[in-house]
Design brief:
By secondary structure, this protein is an alpha/beta fold. The protein is built from 16 helices and eleven strands. Strands 1, 2, 3, 4, 5, 6, 7, 10 and 11 form a nine-stranded mixed β-sheet that branches. It has a two-stranded antiparallel sheet with strand order 8-9. Helix 5 packs across helix 6.
Length: 400
C-alpha cells in the first residue's frame, strides 16, 4: 500500500508539471474545464438560477436554469454519465442552452439522480447501496414527472413545455410516456437527439462486448460494495483529467471515438479538455446493467431481476414486461446520425415505427455525425440545431 501511494504521489506531481506548462498556452480551456455549470453560465453573461426538485421516492434533484420570465419553457435532459454542463460546454453561439435562450426561451437543464449535482436523498446516503438502486426507469417515472410539474408550476401559465433529450434523456422520456402517459399532455414537442431504445443494429463496441457478461460483472461489483460508477472522487477525477488530456491525449481521444463514432472533422482541439472536466458525472451500476439487458434482449423491457420470484413480485410475471411505446402520443421529432454506434439508423427507424405521433424524422446528412456531435460538434448549429429551431417554430405556429 505504501509503495502504491508513493507512486501515486509521483504520478500526480509529474502530471502537475506537464499540466502547468500546457495550461499557460490556453487558460480559458482550463477555466471552462473546471468551472461547474453555474460558473460557466455566469462567466458568459447569462442569468442563472439553481432549483431543487424533490421526487416522490425521496431524491432531491438540481436543475439549472437560464431564466426568461414569461417565456415558453424548454427542458433539456442529458445522457448517461452526463450533466447539465453538456448543454453549455460549447459556449455562446454554439451550445444549445445559450442558443435557445437567445431565441427567447426559458431554459431549464435537469441533473438526474446520481450525477455530481443530484446526490441527495431524504433517507439514503451515496455510500449506501439503496441510494444507487435505480436506472433510466426510475428517472422516467420519478425524476421527469417531478421536474415537469415543477417547471410548469413556475412558468407563468404555460400548460406545456418543450422537451429535448440526448441519449439516456430520450430513453427515460419513453419510460415516462409508457408508464405515466398523462404527462404526454404536458409536452408541446419532444425532440430526441440520438434516441436510444433498441440495439439490434448497434455496432461492435465496448458496450456490446460486455453486455453478455454484465450479470457476472454486476454481481462482482456489488459483492465488493461498488454500486456507483465511477465512484465520485475529486482526486481521481483530477488525475484522469490531467493524464487523459495532456499525457495520453491521443489515446483517450481514440477511446472516445471508438465508443461514440470517429469524427475528426467536427472534433475541436479544446473539446477533450472541456469534456473530461465535466464527464463522467456519475451514475449507478444498475443503469449500465439495465442498458446491457436491452442489448441482450433485443427489445425495450423493464429491469430483469434475474429471479422469477423477484420479477413476479415486481411485475406479476416471470419476465419483465415491455414498455408500451404506443402510449408516447405527444408530438415527437427524432434526429440521428449515420456514424453513431449507440443509436444505429435501423434501430431508430424501428423506434419511429413504434411511435404514434412522429412529426419530424431526420437522418442527418453529414455522414460522420456521431453520438457526441449532438453536443460538441464544431458546426452543430448548422448541422442540427437550426433544423430543431425550425421544427419548434412550426409546432408553435400549428404547422405540425
Amino acid at each position: 500500500m505504501f509503495r502504491f501511494n508513493y507512486c501515486l504521489i509521483w504520478l500526480c506531481l509529474y502530471a502537475n508539471l506537464v499540466f502547468a506548462n500546457i495550461v499557460k498556452n490556453d487558460p480559458a480551456v482550463l477555466e471552462d474545464a473546471h468551472l461547474r455549470t453555474p460558473g460557466l453560465i455566469k462567466k458568459y453573461g447569462y442569468p442563472f438560477e439553481e432549483h431543487k426538485i424533490d421526487t416522490k421516492d425521496g431524491f432531491r434533484l438540481t436543475a439549472h436554469r437560464i431564466p426568461k420570465r414569461g417565456a415558453q419553457p424548454v427542458l433539456l435532459v442529458h445522457g448517461l454519465q452526463d450533466s447539465s454542463a453538456s448543454w453549455v460546454l460549447s459556449g455562446p453561439g454554439k451550445a444549445l442552452a445559450y442558443l435557445l435562450s437567445d431565441r427567447g426561451y426559458d431554459v431549464w437543464m435537469l441533473n438526474v439522480r446520481g450525477n455530481r449535482y443530484s446526490r441527495k436523498h431524504i433517507i439514503y446516503h451515496p455510500l449506501q447501496r439503496q441510494f444507487w438502486d435505480f436506472s433510466f426507469h426510475e428517472i422516467g417515472i420519478y425524476d421527469l414527472p417531478a421536474t415537469i410539474d415543477y417547471i410548469l408550476n413556475r412558468s407563468g401559465g404555460y400548460k406545456k413545455l418543450h422537451y429535448v433529450g440526448h441519449s439516456q434523456g430520450t430513453t427515460s422520456f419513453f419510460v415516462m410516456g409508457s408508464e405515466r402517459p398523462a404527462y404526454m399532455k404536458k409536452i408541446k414537442l419532444f425532440q430526441g437527439l440520438a434516441p436510444v431504445v433498441y440495439f439490434a443494429y448497434t455496432k461492435q463496441s465496448l458496450g456490446t462486448f460486455l453486455a453478455p457478461h454484465i450479470g457476472d460483472i454486476v454481481r462482482l461489483a456489488n459483492l465488493v460494495g461498488i454500486y456507483e460508477f465511477p465512484p465520485e472522487n475529486e482526486v481521481w477525477r483530477e488525475l484522469l483529467y490531467k493524464y487523459c488530456t495532456f499525457i495520453f491525449r491521443n489515446t483517450c481521444t481514440y477511446f472516445i471515438m471508438q465508443i461514440a463514432g470517429v469524427d475528426d472533422e467536427q472534433w475541436s482541439g479544446i473539446a477533450l479538455p472541456k469534456l473530461l472536466g465535466h464527464f463522467p458525472a456519475g451514475t449507478s451500476v444498475k443503469s449500465f446493467d439495465h442498458y446491457a439487458q436491452q442489448i441482450n434482449s433485443g427489445g425495450f423491457f423493464k429491469y430483469n431481476y434475474r429471479s422469477v420470484a423477484k420479477n413476479r413480485k415486481a411485475y406479476g410475471s416471470a419476465k419483465p414486461p415491455a414498455y408500451e411505446l404506443a402510449n408516447v402520443d405527444c408530438k415527437v421529432a427524432l434526429y440521428y446520425g449515420k456514424n453513431d454506434p449507440l443509436a444505429a439508423v435501423k434501430d431508430v427507424q424501428h423506434l419511429r415505427n413504434e411511435l404514434p405521433n412522429v412529426v419530424h424524422d431526420e437522418l442527418l446528412t453529414y455522414k460522420k455525425f456521431n453520438h457526441i456531435d449532438f453536443l460538441v460538434a464544431i458546426d452543430v448549429k448548422k448541422l442540427l440545431y437550426d433544423s430543431m429551431f425550425s421544427v419548434m417554430k412550426r409546432v408553435e405556429e400549428g404547422e405540425l
